[in-house]
Design brief:
Elements (H helix, E strand, L loop, with lengths): L2 H7 L2 E5 L2 E4 L8 H28 L8 H28 L4 H23 L7 H23 L2
Antiparallel strand pairs: 1-2
Helix pairs in contact: 2-3, 2-5, 3-4, 4-5
């Protein structure tokens, strides 16, 4: 690389009148913010994954639901939403320059809320499982995509 281009690339400009000018690099989020964000989204992803396990323990065709596992499933949804909400706040405050993570986090949190709402209605409207189950799979995909996307700085 040419000396002038190398200097500009490194954040300095060629000297003017014998003095080197330093340019300020645009503010970028630090690694700690990415690690915190990835940890929160990762924990939320684990909660979403466990939701499938817990649902499998109480969903049996032609049988009533086991209320204890339904409660565990509901608490798991609340935990996943809480973690996703905190991750969204971290994205909005610390990673605001990463529009992909901000939008992805907001969408993830809103879809989790929708999923929990639909899950609460399933007891009265079993047909909603046709939306609830595929939405859960989409949420899992988004939960995996977000931390991997965060690594790409």
């Amino acid at each position: 690389m040419e000396p002038e281009r190398l200097a500009v690339h490194c954040g300095t400009r060629p000297s003017v009148g014998g003095r080197t000018q330093t340019t300020a690099a645009p503010a970028r989020p630090r690694g700690a913010a990415y690690r915190l964000y990835s940890a929160l989204i990762g924990l939320s992803a684990v909660a979403v994954l466990l939701q499938g396990l817990w649902a499998g323990l109480f969903v049996h065709e032609g049988q009533d639901y086991d209320d204890s596992w339904v409660s565990v499933h509901a608490r798991g949804a609340e935990i996943a939403i809480g973690l996703a909400l905190v991750a969204t706040v971290v994205a909005l405050v610390k990673l605001r320059s990463r529009l992909d993570l901000v939008i992805g986090s907001v969408v993830f949190t809103l879809l989790l809320v929708l999923e929990a709402y639909l899950g609460g209605l399933i007891g009265d409207r079993a047909g909603l499982t046709a939306v609830h189950f595929p939405l859960a799979m989409a949420l899992m995909g988004l939960a995996v995509w977000l931390p991997f996307r965060a690594v790409r700085r």
